[in-house]
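Section 5.1 Outputs to date
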Amino acid sequence: MSNFGIILGEPNSINSEILAKSKAIKSKAIIIGNYNLLKSQLKILKIKRKIKKINNLNDINKSKKVFNVLDIPLKFKKAFLVNPSESSIYVKRCLKVGHDLCLQKKIKGFINCPINKKNLFKDKTFGVTEFLAKKNKVYKSEVMLIYNKKLSVVPLTTHIQLKDVSKNIKKNLIINKIQTLNKYYYKYFQKKPRIALLGLNPHNSEFKKNSEEIKIIIPAIKKLRKKIKIYGPFPSDTIFFKDNLKKFDVIVGMYHDQVLTPFKTLFEFDAVNITLGLPYIRISPDHGIAEDKKNLNISNPKSLDRCIDIISKLKK
């Protein structure tokens, strides 16, 4: 099974553009999205690509010069101005189709192009990572791996507000997520990762007795260290020094921006988002929908190309 899906994602976005400019047309990708939307948007962008509407995977045109689009219903009047409620229904439907095809073993996994989670989920702490984790009954043991072959990062908590981070950091959460990270990193990249775990507080709160470092993080490390290459806790203000980057494969932080901000400073968008812990491969570009650039034909497909390179090589 070498086919994989690419979910078109948010209609009011750069997704059709980056898809058309990417390596997808030379791959074994099945495009999951609305045929007429893609056709209309490419016409506005003045990008010529051959696309074929298919109703099931038996209809695939095997030419590497054609986009096979598994057509998903969507009501729209203007190609880049889809109603948010219609967009939300459509994107969830696309995700469900991708999820079902994976469970049916018809594709090995999927890339989802960026989505607008503000419109998509009632729970604003949710993104696609959490949505799929709940759907696959692995919620709170799934891992958001922001991957670059030189260095990857993981936030233990993902889309919650900063004021809620401390109360969500638990010993079992750290243990479950590090175990998932270790297992799936080895599965996908054939290497046992060297993991650096950060503290929560500035200077690790100087290791005061009532700090999260002493009460939660260090006990978790001690338990994990028996079978996993994990080190720390490290202060977050120095871990991204160049010498440190050579020592570790993954830096795990307590919250989203603790690791994503320095990571994106180093690598910009030369990275992909991989959800670890699912029964199939799920990857997405490490950027947003860029609605302000949606019909300008100026966007770079680099992160989507990275997704295609990786999912093409990975074994389920």
